[in-house]
Fold this sequence. Notes:
3 helices, 3 strands, 115 residues, alpha+beta, three-stranded mixed sheet, globular
Amino acid sequence: MSLSGKDEMEVNHAALDIWGARMKQYPDMTMKVTGCNSNSGAERGKIDLSKQRAMAVRDYLVNTWGIDGKRIIVDQRNLPELPTNPVTKAGMEENRRVEISSNDPRIKRSGEDRK
């Protein structure tokens, strides 16, 4: 699948679909989704916003891919573990994200690595 020319939302949905397909393929795979915020301005200390972001990813995988919600751990924090520069506009925008980790490295492998 080529992501060339796609906007950010299309790329994000494509990534979610890849992760959903891999979780379906590997039933022992679990995932942790950690919602983050920029921890600045209106988002300062809004840990509930971070949780909403993580829950949106979890809900997509559960509702679209039929993944058992027990396989997805939801966590939240203000800034990401390794934040982008939080004093620039681009850095603040990039820190408004959900980070993905898994018990199985295949969750993030590229197509070439899975062979």
